[in-house]
Each structure stands twice: as C-alpha cells, then as structure tokens.
Amino acid sequence: MIKKTKNKQKAKSIRLYVVRHGDYGDNLDLSHEGITQITETANSIKKKIRCKKLIVFSSPQTRAVSSANLITKIFGPNIKSEVSVEYDLNCEAYSINGFVNRLAQNYKVSDAIIVSHKPDIERYTGIELACGQYTVKTLNKGRK
C-alpha cells in the first residue's frame, strides 16, 4: 500500500494521466480490443512516469476497474502501484484541481492516473478521448 503523506516536503506539481477505460463487451468488462488498447496505453505511460510509486484512481464501473488493474499489472514490480476505487470521480461538481489537491494532501506522489468515462474526462480536460486513449495534465498543487 502506498503510504499517505506525513512530512511537509512535497512535489510542487502532479502529472495526472487521464485515461478513458478500454473498449468493452456485452458483460461490461474489457473486450479483447479493450485489453489491447489499455496495454498500449499503459506501456506508453510507463515510459513517462517520473516516480517509483503511483496511485491509479478508478471509477467503480467494471470496465474502468479492469482497465486500472491491467495498468498496474503492466507496470510490474519496478513501479509500486495500487488501484483506488473512487465513487466521486464522476460527480459533476468535482473539479480536477480539487481532486489534485486532495491527492496532494493524502499521497506523496508526483504522478497519478485517473481511469474514467467519456463525459467525466471531457469535464476534467475539455478533450474527447476514444476508448483506451489518454491525455496528460500537469497541475500545480494548491490550485482551486
């Protein structure tokens, strides 16, 4: 488990990777294509990660949790990662800066991943992503 922050020395910004879950089938879990999409995305993100520990936040929907678990599996033992299912990721009133501030207060990480859904990602980033795609936002801690 990634420890929560105790000391006052923190990174000034967080690089947040916002990932849309992979394509899914009738059972709402990842399809073969979705597994391929997330595998490619995870390998791309893995090359850019700045730290040795990472938290992956996921919506509670099956396709998002499966995508988040696959990402942490692909990162392997060299990057300590865990999935945290967040029930308020899709709240319309929730701002991306508020999320980053909560992250900064609770975890000592410089990189994080959110796995979510189309409308929430558009609300967070202003960008429309296809299944399995991601975007990166670097946000200063302390912004509202």
Provide a quick synopsis of the model.
The protein has helices spanning 32-46, 62-75, 96-106, 118-125, and strands at 13-20, 53-58, 80-85, 111-116, 134-140.
> By helix and strand content, what is the structural category?
alpha/beta
Number of strands: 5
Rg from alpha-carbon coordinates:
14 Å
Q: Output the number of helix runs.
A: 4
Annotated CATH architecture: 3-Layer(aba) Sandwich
Give the number of domains: 1
Silhouette: globular
Which stretches of 5+ consecutive residues score pLDDT under 50? none
Architecture overview:
With 144 residues, the protein is of the alpha/beta class. It has one domain (19-140): Phosphoglycerate mutase-like (Rossmann fold, 3-Layer(aba) Sandwich), CATH 3.40.50. The chain contains four helices and five strands. Strands 3-2-4-1-5 form a five-stranded mixed beta sheet. Strand 2, helix 2 (62-75) and strand 3 form a beta-alpha-beta unit. It starts with 12 loop residues before the first strand and ends with a strand.
List the helices and strands and how they pair.
Layout lengths: L12 E8 L11 H15 L6 E6 L3 H14 L4 E6 L10 H11 L4 E6 L1 H8 L8 E7 L4
Parallel strand pairs: 1-4, 2-3, 2-4
Antiparallel strand pairs: 1-5
Helix pairs in contact: 1-2
Attribute tags:
Rossmann fold; 23% strand; 5 strands; 144 residues; 5-stranded mixed sheet; alpha/beta
